[in-house]
Design goal:
Order of helices and strands: HEEEEEHEEE
Radius of gyration: 42 Å
CATH class of the largest domain: Mainly Beta
CATH architecture of the largest domain: Sandwich
Number of domains: 2
Helix content: 10-25%
Number of strands: 8
Number of helices: 2
Structural class: alpha+beta
Length: about 190
């Protein structure tokens, strides 16, 4: 019995060895084929791309001074001043004007705002009217024109460099109720790119 068992074991061992060898050769040939596979190759690229944001830049020529500092206005007296607003941004923009007011005299001050060209801060010499943007009381202006969305239009598509001059006329109404009252006002120009 041992004689027949030994050749069987040898044959089985040889079969396992042969099977292991075939499996190993198959695995190695798959590795060799995938790692040594030849192919044509080509690439193209586009390098050093750069990006920068545009600008919206708005200035005026007031050099930090107030446009109006008026005391002792008499009924029907007016004061007129100009201010030039410059646009130097790299993006086209729309410019709007709005403001704020406080004090009880605002309801008795009639304000007229014109936009045009020529003139400069505190000097309307050479000013040419383009259009009238507003005529009404200072109080009504401040209540209705509070931000860019509802601000006075009149300068759309501003490009670098360009400017507009705003002429503002303030007149005290002939109303005895205005006597002794006062008001303060802020005027703001805002640009937003289109």
């Amino acid at each position: 019995m041992q004689q027949t068992d030994t050749p069987r074991r040898s044959r089985r061992a040889m079969a396992y060895r042969a099977l292991a060898m075939v499996a190993s050769l198959g695995f190695v040939s798959v590795l060799v084929m995938t790692s040594s596979r030849a192919a044509f190759v080509d690439t193209t690229d586009n390098t050093s791309n750069q990006f920068s944001a545009g600008t919206v830049v708005l200035n005026d020529d007031d050099t930090g001074s107030v446009l109006f500092n008026v005391n002792n206005l008499a009924p029907t007296q007016s004061r007129t001043n100009c201010i030039r607003v410059d646009y130097t941004g790299s993006l086209a923009a729309n410019v709007r004007m709005y403001g704020a007011a406080s004090g009880s005299l605002g309801q008795y001050l009639t304000v007229s705002i014109d936009v045009g060209t020529g003139g400069s801060f505190d000097n309307c010499t050479g000013f040419t009217v383009g259009s009238n943007l507003y005529t009404g009381t200072l109080s009504a202006f401040a209540a209705a024109r509070t931000n860019f969305t509802n601000g006075l239009q009149g300068w759309n598509g501003a490009t670098n460099p360009s400017n507009r001059t705003y002429r503002i006329t303030v007149t005290l109404q002939d109303n005895n109720s205005a006597q002794g009252l006062s008001a303060n006002a802020d005027f703001t120009w805002e640009a937003q790119n289109t």
